[in-house]
């Protein structure tokens, strides 16, 4: 069975410039767990419940080590900056996960399931050969397929 056979074709999307408040209103009205982030025709990321939950946790200061009157930062600098942006960001571009990991509509469902399991994702945007968004496949879609078979 192929991804195209079980994916959801009607996909609600958001843009990088939308505010977090706008996304929360969409969440409330559409009851989905994630939105692909599109800029024109291109999928540039995905924003999920996990990305928004990240905002509610307290910001942790980076770890440092004092050694011989010197200060050594133990955390990766880029990781610290990314955490700060996700915690205080007001726009989708600040909190989304990018780059996006996607799957082809012609991929086998097992390939999509493995990708989700290996990466810890709950959903994957489905992009055609030209990179256009044609659907989204979630863990729930795959489980429904298992139940039917």
Describe the protein's architecture and organization.
The chain has a single domain (3-148), classed as CBS-domain, CATH 3.10.580.10. Helices cover 38% and strands 21% of the residues. The chain has seven helices and six strands. The strands form three sheets. Strands 1-2 form a two-stranded antiparallel sheet. The protein has a two-stranded antiparallel ribbon with strand order 3-4. Strand 5 (123-127) and strand 6 (133-138) form a beta hairpin. The model has no long low-confidence stretch (mean pLDDT 84).
In brief:
This protein is α+β, with helices and mostly antiparallel strands and 149 residues long.
What is the element layout, followed by pairings?
Blueprint (H helix, E strand, L loop, with lengths): L2 H4 L13 H11 L3 E6 L2 E7 H5 L10 E4 L2 E4 L3 H12 L3 H4 L13 H11 L3 E5 L5 E6 H10 L1
Antiparallel strand pairs: 1-2, 3-4, 5-6
The named CATH superfamily: CBS-domain
Strand order of the largest sheet: 1-2
Total helices: the number is 7
Within the CATH hierarchy, at the fold level, what is the topology?
CBS-domain
**Share of residues in strands:** 15-25%
Fraction of residues in helix: 25-40%
């Amino acid at each position: 069975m192929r991804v195209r056979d079980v994916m959801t074709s009607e996909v609600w999307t958001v843009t990088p410039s939308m505010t977090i408040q706008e996304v929360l209103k969409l969440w409330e009205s559409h009851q989905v767990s994630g939105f692909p982030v599109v800029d024109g025709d291109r999928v540039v990321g995905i924003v999920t419940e996990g990305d928004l939950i990240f905002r509610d946790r307290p910001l942790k200061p980076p770890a440092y080590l004092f050694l011989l009157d010197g200060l050594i930062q133990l955390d990766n600098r880029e990781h610290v900056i990314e955490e700060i942006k996700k915690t205080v960001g007001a726009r989708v571009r600040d909190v989304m996960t990018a780059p996006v990991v996607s799957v082809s509509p012609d991929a086998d469902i097992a390939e999509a399931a493995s990708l989700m399991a290996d990466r810890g994702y709950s959903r994957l945007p489905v992009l055609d050969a030209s990179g256009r968004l044609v659907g989204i496949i979630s863990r729930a879609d795959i489980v429904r397929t298992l139940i039917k078979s």
